[in-house]
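Figure 2 data, in text form.
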Amino acid sequence: MKPTIKPAALAGALLLSACSLAPTYERPAAPVAAAFPSDSAGAASRTSVAVPLRADARSAVDTGWRDYFTDPRLQALIGAALENNRDLRAAVLRIEEARAQYSIQSADRLPNVNASLADTRAKTPAFLSSTGRSTIGERYDVGVSVSSFELDFFGRVKSLNDAALASYLATEEARLAAQIALVAQVAQAYYTERAYAEQYALAQQTYEARARTYKLTQQRAEVGASSRLDLRSNETLMETARAAALTLARQRAQAENALTLLVGQAPSAAASGAMPGDAQIDTLSALPEGLPSDLLARRPDIRAAEQRLKAANASIGAARAAFFPRISLTAAVGSSSPSLHGLFDSGSGSWSFAPQLTLPIFDAGRNSANLTLAEVRKNLAVADYEKTIQTAFREVADALAARDYLGEQVNAQRAVQEAQADRLKLLQLRFDNGVASSLDVLDAQRELFSAQQTLVQARLLRTTSAIDLYRALGGGLK
């Protein structure tokens, strides 16, 4: 009698296979404060630069990189990097790898159905034949079979599938995190190169001015109007400016090389553009007061850490299910005939049904060790998730602190530069009137050059801090 599978029995098996022994997932509480610090020690209130809030109170996390970075050349560089950067390309390939692994694992939740067609011929020698003569037998078989399909009563296969899905999603989030980091790195490399270019221009201008002064001093020394000490002092200042210009030229070339590596191809246009002004940086770094820390949940690296935690949680279910019996089915239905034309004749049908139950009895503690390993890995994933949140909170807090203090620092350094420029003018007048010495003028020139270079560095720090704040809040996806 040919067995039949009743629909109710099949439905019951499917319901049982939906069970899972994995622990109920609960997101760990974020081990950080409820809101980011809005003003580090009152620094923002002391700065003379007003930091306006955006009219629509949007934060960096809601702003695409094209809206955040408005420099046309920078936008072109970021777009090229997103297409050509090899690290980002590797991240995309890892997504494809994880997707394939998930597809392989999810295939185990459905039976593998195979169709087969076989033609078998065999010769029987005479001494083995009942007729005393050698014979050649022929047989044709056709059928459909299901081999070793596991009935997932205790959710082992489902848990493995859930773990593979979470791992795939974690890889996708890791790609998004890599994309945000790349946008920030390109912007920082671009403005670093622009800062070196600005410093180099200042150094070159200073060298040319000092070279003219040295030439005049040399002419004066030849007629006895200047001392050798004045000549050597001017020569020292001139050569110092030349050495600084050469150093900055090297640093700028290296910054261009770093930018080329990030973009993934040689730049299509010559270096151009300028560092953002104070008003533009104010707009970039403006955020609403009392920004809630739950915005961190939108950061891809935190979402990736949570997906890894979910994968570890599902793996516990698979480890628990290993303690219970495993039931698998092998079945086949088909037709057999000694001739091809009679393959589907009445009475040629055949079938087989072979359920198998495997009950673990003794495994030398393997299953217990696997369960312990799964639980430890989950605890590690919890620690990694919490550490990722704490690191993200610190990155945002550091960027906010930098925003609060660097604006005041830039203003102070600009005041230093203006004071040094005015000091040089006054000393030059005193020197022309015979009141001040040439050494006083040379010292003022040296101090002014140092103040100019330091101001550019402070502006670069303020720019990069705004970029850090944007990246820390998870912006840059569009």
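Caption note: The two ends are 65 Å apart (CA to CA).
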